[in-house]
Write a structure and sequence with these properties.
- With 125 residues, the chain is mainly α.
- The longest helix has 30 residues.
- Helix 1 packs parallel to helix 3 and helix 2 packs parallel to helix 5.
- It contains 5 helices and no strands.
- The termini are far apart.
- The chain has one domain.
- It is globular.
């Protein structure tokens, strides 16, 4: 149990650091008026979750799931930041932008997960 907890914690540190770097990079490239970084990490993370879901299950690597899926990807993607970004946009009087952000984030993240799983299944077939 302790070993698994440490693996999750180490993965979380890696994922959170990656999320921070993506957010900083997105802010510098795209500006800070819209939470581009959060959308990016959620879509990228969902795609990678789809890939890992298939690879680890097919290759008997579920022992790596706590580190990779819960830790790294759990630290990389973030529903709490997503929720805060949506509320901030709404409270700024940008209700339409907040709605677009919520729909885009959810739809693109789900689509990315499906595509990641689909492509990985094709490659591994």
């Amino acid at each position: 149990m302790l070993q698994t907890l440490l693996a999750v914690a180490a993965g979380g540190a890696i994922g959170a650091s990656g999320r921070y770097l993506v957010n900083v990079g997105a802010g510098r490239i795209m500006g800070i008026g819209f939470p581009y970084g959060t959308v990016a990490v959620n879509v990228i993370g969902s795609f990678l979750m789809g890939v890992l879901f298939v690879v680890l299950a097919r290759k008997g690597g579920m022992g790596y799931a706590p580190f990779l899926m819960t830790g790294v990807l759990g630290g990389f993607t973030t529903f709490s930041a997503f929720s805060l970004d949506a509320l901030t946009l709404f409270e700024r009087g940008q209700g339409g932008t907040a709605a677009i952000y919520v729909v885009l984030s959810v739809a693109l993240s789900l689509l990315a997960l499906v595509i990641g799983a689909f492509l990985t299944r094709m490659v591994m077939a």
